[in-house]
Amino acid sequence: MTTDWLEWHHQYDASDSSLSGRLAVVRRDLRRALVEAPCDEGGSRSLISICAGDGRDVLPVLAEQDGGGQVRACLIELDPTLSQRARTTADDLGLPGVRVRTADAGATDTYLGLPPAHVLLACGVFGNITADDVRRTVATLPGLLAPGGIVIWTRAGRSTGHDPSQDVRSWFTDHGFTELSFTRPARHPFRVGMNRLDADPRPLTPGTRMFTFV
Ligand SMILES: C[S@@+](CC[C@H](N)C(=O)[O-])C[C@H]1O[C@@H](n2cnc3c(N)ncnc32)[C@H](O)[C@@H]1O
User: Fold this and answer.
1) Would the CB of 51 count as within 6 Å of ligand 1?
2) Least buried of 7, 171, 175, 204, by fewest C-beta within 10 Å?
3) End-to-end CA distance of the chain
4) What angle, rounded to 10 degrees, do the helices at 164-174 and 131-140 form?
């Protein structure tokens, strides 16, 4: 059975849901990343959000913090209704630096021509793909990032037994990332990580697949 992602977004309607709690943490970490991430010579930053949904994590934070339009953001979302919602929200918030692509974020060809990201979000992705795909995606991220680029990612965790978010943390370390923060709330099962690329970025290999939703 495939997930109805429009329906899934209704979990955000309840302010006490785990997803709403996760959203608050992702926005908090994004505010920090937009201060700490490197920028280009003109002071602007490039941001990529993969599997962006309706963009509610990124867009309000840009509206708060990016009055000068210094962030060029590309949101990549496969579902045309959700990507159109993100476009409409970006217009309503007056964010001319935001582009929304209705495209497959799992294919490296989708990123050809995009500037390396100073900030990249992978939220709601790693719990919907196989462990091998998570590992492959983490290994590919240095090809999407500028030196020192910051990744914000999420994964559901477990309080007993093996917690899969621990694997994600170690894969980031294996691929040259330094952990800047890791949030594991007591009340909710989500985890939010923030990691900075401290190894050299690698060229992106065209024509390859990072992940497929299962
Ligand atoms: C769990 S939701 C997360 C949405 C958003 N990042 C958030 O955290 O609110 C996963 C999203 O990924 C999208 N998606 C699934 N496969 C995709 C793909 N190959 N490329 C781009 N988006 C995809 C779905 O349509 C859905 O909106």
Assistant:
1) yes
2) 7
3) 9
4) 30
**Length in residues, the chain:** 214
Average pLDDT of the chain is 95
Burial label, 152 (beta-carbon count in 10 A; 0-12, 13-18, 19+): buried
Distance CA 162, CA 15 (A): 29
Cβ count within 10 A of residue 181: 14
Spacing, Cα 117 to ligand 1 middle (Å): 19
Architecture of the domain defined by 19-197:
3-Layer(aba) Sandwich (3.40)
pLDDT tens per residue across span 55-96? 999 999 999 986 667 999 999 999 999 999 999 999 999 999
Ligand 1 pocket, residue 213 CB under 6 Å: yes
Given the CA of residue 26, which atom of ligand 1 is nearest to it? 8
- For tokens 């429009």, name the residue: 6
Helix (H) and strand (E) counts in the chain:
6, 7
Residue 59 is encoded by which pair of tokens?
Answer: 């867009």
Helix (H) or strand (E) holding 36: helix 18-36
Q: Which residue has the tokens 């994004």?
A: 30
Beta carbons of 164 and 158 less than 8 angstroms apart: yes
And the tokens for 63?
């509206």
190 lines ligand 1 (CB under 6 A): no
